[in-house]
Design a protein that fits this description.
This protein is α+β, with helices and mostly antiparallel strands. Helices cover 47% and strands 12% of the residues. It has 23 helices and 17 strands. The chain has helices at 2-23, 31-49, 55-81, 87-104, 113-136, 140-143, 145-158, 166-181, 199-233, 253-256, 261-267, 306-309, 441-452, 457-471, 484-492, 504-517, 613-648, 652-669, 680-695, 703-718, 725-744, 748-754, 759-762; strands spanning 272-280, 313-320, 322-323, 328-329, 335-337, 350-361, 368-369, 375-379, 383-386, 391-393, 403-413, 473-474, 501-502, 522-530, 533-537, 541-549, 553-556. The strands form 5 sheets. It has a 5-stranded antiparallel sheet, with no helix packed on it. It has a 4-stranded antiparallel sheet with strand order 2-14-16-17. α18 (652-669) crosses α20.
Length: 764
């Protein structure tokens, strides 16, 4: 009896625990699985122990036990993840953000309080509901529903991020079958249960039982036949990932383009941004020689590490892959991650070195979290991670005093293979090959010139790097900007006018754009050059370009000029060929001149090579006056032609309408424009008032004529075709008289502009 009574509770524990097994496949370790198993066992055992209590009292007792188990689970998860803060703070944060963080967490999921709270509570509630239904009411199959729902939810949350859970599903079916096969109630009494009934009633009961059993079997067979093809068709289907419906953490506006912060940092080089302490946990498994003309692929000098030879360590802040011709953007998709970050396979021809850093934030703002590429483990801060770029953010933002430890796997490719390495192409790298529309022709010609004699990708990249390093200078006070116009001024602007100089922002952006124009997949990285120990200041901020090579990964280049290197003028090595040669480059005639050249006249310059400055100034001024005079004469002629056309062309109705347009145009020139919603009589009243105000009480004609013109216009509108030529002549005279009177009342300088004002020409 004891064994038989224990079968259903054990089955409920097993079914609920299997949901934790399925969900635990996407977690970094088995802590979540054991916490769910504990919740399943605790919830069912509490119901078994309280089976003699009233049903209304079992739920409060079980919920109190759930609270204790949940708090213990949160404390254990926080300790394992090394999260700061007391249990109350950690628990409140997990309660607020448990579901969104679970659905946006990076795979594998770190068992932290916010990623274990929801599964543990759901497992306990499923066990409680199933035990109460199955044990108290005896409906075992109905009691399986909460556990089955929890199992299906676990499968949905895992989605395509783990292998199919075939073994766990078979175990779920087997445990459910065992629970159904062993009833928990007492065995039935011996003998036929209907033996004592009358014969007629006994036959009816047996017939009803037989029909019910047959109907149940038919229903089950029909459902199997109906659903089997659909279920079989989904066996090879890819599950839906629920994470695509949840918006991942977003970077702030300040962090979308940290490249523009370079110039601001350059103006305050002593500002302390970070404190860094670097420990090297191991040495690379293979050596690498320096890159000729470039820098080490991890951003450091190829000769060694900071603690070995005093060389620098590059700390990355952001990777910018998207460029629209105006600005570079991060373009990363960050997912909440735990302490252990998902590992990515290193490039084929590279060695890996482990570097561990303890970083303390000073005055660095924003949400981007600095780290040496590529981070593998972070403790001391809650982070979100983008595996494509290997960069981190802290969704809550950086705060002074924040201290975290990051362990990175720094790749060092075999530099001897760079000269013969190819670059990838196709849809996979289309993002870092895209050239935005509107690239200046000079920029394209420069990229073509640098790629002409350099067929290999690495040779092209080195040519761009050397050209920038040899022809441009670094200026800490150079303005920020890397749009096409900014890059054009940086590359081709006059040296004495602020061109051909900039910060690392312009050098890195120019390299990346020129690289893409020559077929190289490029991106821009923003970070800091550090000794690896001590403070990192604003003057250490730096941007550098990277190029993607097959088998070698992203390789960094340094287009900045070398110390004490005086840049050569760009014009010495870049002479863009114009589309049409100027007339001076036309071939000289082959016929010899028959007369000697005329001597140089006094109109030439002092050296006899050109026209003197006074002559140029006088000629330019005269040409400008002629141009202005021509424009004014053209406007005057067009205005007079418009007036003649209105008053003399067309039938009488059109001429009357033209005369009216002359009056309304005059009102507009006088600063009294009329609206389209006014009637003709209302416009006539406004015209009388405008003329009276302009004359300031002086007498004159033209007012009655406007009223007559308004009457003629109404006649044309309401009786088309009734106007005569004499009426059209009278309308023209009225309009001419009114316009002349209104113009005569204007100041003298307005009268000069009246006849050449272009307003009536563009009015309809």
């Amino acid at each position: 009896m004891v064994v038989r009574a224990a079968v259903v509770p054990l089955a409920l524990i097993g079914l609920t625990a299997l949901a934790g097994v399925v969900l635990g496949r996407v977690y970094a370790d088995d802590l979540l699985t054991w916490l769910v198993v504990g919740a399943a066992a605790g919830s069912v055992l509490v119901s078994v122990a309280a089976r003699r209590l009233p049903s209304w009292l079992v739920a409060p007792v079980s919920v109190a036990a759930m609270a204790g188990w949940t708090l213990w689970s949160l404390r254990l998860a926080a300790a394992r993840a090394d999260l700061p803060g007391d249990l109350l703070t950690v628990g409140a944060d997990a309660a607020r953000n448990g579901i969104p963080r679970l659905l946006t967490a990076m795979i594998p999921v770190e068992p932290t309080p916010d990623t274990v709270l929801v599964p543990v509570v759901a497992a306990w509630l499923a066990g409680l509901a199933g035990a109460e239904v199955a044990l108290r009411t005896g409906r075992v199959l109905l009691g399986y529903l909460p556990a089955a729902g929890l199992y299906a939810a676990a499968l949905y949350v895992v989605g395509p991020n783990a292998e199919p859970a075939i073994g766990a599903t078979l175990a779920f079916v087997a445990v459910a079958a065992v629970g159904l096969a062993a009833p928990s109630g007492p065995p039935p009494a011996a003998g036929d249960p209907v033996a004592g009934l009358p014969r007629g009633v006994r036959a009816a009961v047996r017939l009803r039982l037989t029909a019910t059993a047959a109907l149940g079997v038919a229903l089950v067979v029909g459902l199997v036949a109906l659903l089997s093809p659909m279920i079989a068709g989904q066996v090879d289907g890819r599950p839906v990932d629920p994470r695509r419906y949840v918006e991942p953490p977003q970077v702030e506006t300040l962090d979308e383009n940290p490249l523009i912060r370079i110039s601001g940092w350059a103006l305050h080089p002593e500002q302390k941004l970070l404190d860094v302490s670097t420990v090297r946990d191991g040495t690379p498994t293979g050596g690498s020689s320096p890159i000729p003309g470039g820098i080490a692929p991890d951003g450091d000098d190829a000769s060694g590490g900071p603690d070995a030879s005093g060389s620098s360590v590059r700390i990355r802040l952001a990777v910018l892959s998207d460029y629209d011709g105006v600005t570079w953007r991060v373009g990363a998709t960050y997912r909440n991650a735990g302490r252990i970050l998902p590992a990515t396979a290193p490039a084929r021809d590279s060695t890996v070195e482990t570097i561990r850093q303890e970083i303390t934030v000073a005055e660095l703002s924003g949400g981007l979290l600095p780290a040496v590429a590529t981070p593998r483990e972070v403790s001391g801060a809650r982070v979100a991670y983008d595996p494509e770029t290997g960069t981190l953010i802290r969704p809550e933002g950086l705060t002074p005093g924040l201290r975290y430890t990051v362990t990175s796997a720094r790749e060092r490719p075999d530099n001897n293979l760079l000269a013969t390495a190819n670059v990838p192409a196709g849809e996979e790298v289309a993002r870092v090959l895209r050239v935005a529309d509107g690239a200046p022709d000079q920029l394209r010609r420069l990229a073509t010139q640098l790629a002409e004699d350099n067929g290999a990708p690495y040779a092209r990249a080195t040519a761009i790097e050397q050209f920038l390093a040899e022809h441009y200078r670094v200026a800490a006070d150079a303005p920020s900007g890397h749009a096409y116009p900014n890059l054009g001024f940086f590359l081709f602007g006059p040296r004495n006018g602020g061109g051909q100089e900039g910060t690392s922002e312009q050098f890195a952006a120019a390299f990346a754009v020129l690289g893409r124009l020559s077929g190289l997949p490029t991106r821009v990285v923003v970070g800091f050059e550090s000794s690896g120990q001590g403070p990192v200041r604003a003057g250490d901020a730096y941007a550098w370009p990277e190029v993607l090579f097959d088998g070698l990964g992203w390789v960094a280049f340094d287009p900045l000029p070398r110390p004490d290197n005086e840049p050569r003028p760009v014009e010495e090595d870049f002479r863009p060929t114009p589309d049409d040669p100027p007339p001076s480059e036309a071939p000289a005639p082959t016929v010899e001149p028959t007369a000697s050249p005329e001597p140089v006249t006094a109109a030439d310059g002092p050296d006899g090579s050109g026209v003197s400055t006074p002559v140029l100034v006088a000629g330019g001024s005269g040409g400008l006056l002629l141009l202005v005079g021509g424009v004014l004469l053209a406007l005057l002629a067009m205005r007079r032609s418009l007036t003649r056309a209105r008053l003399s062309r067309g039938d009488p109705g059109e001429r009357i309408a033209g005369a009216w347009r002359e009056v309304t145009d005059a009102l507009g020139l006088a600063g009294r424009p009329v609206g389209d919603d006014l009637a003709a009589t209302e416009v006539a009243n406004q015209a009388r008032q405008a003329l009276a105000d302009a004359r300031s009480g002086r007498s004159g004609g033209g007012v009655a004529d406007v009223d007559d013109l308004a009457a003629l216009l109404n006649q044309v509108a309401f009786a088309p075709g009734a106007a005569t030529a004499a009426q059209a002549d009278r309308a023209g005279a009225a309009a001419t008289g009114y316009v002349a009177g209104l113009r005569a009342a204007r100041p003298w300088w307005r009268r000069l502009l009246w006849s050449i004002h272009p307003g009536p020409l563009r009015r309809r």
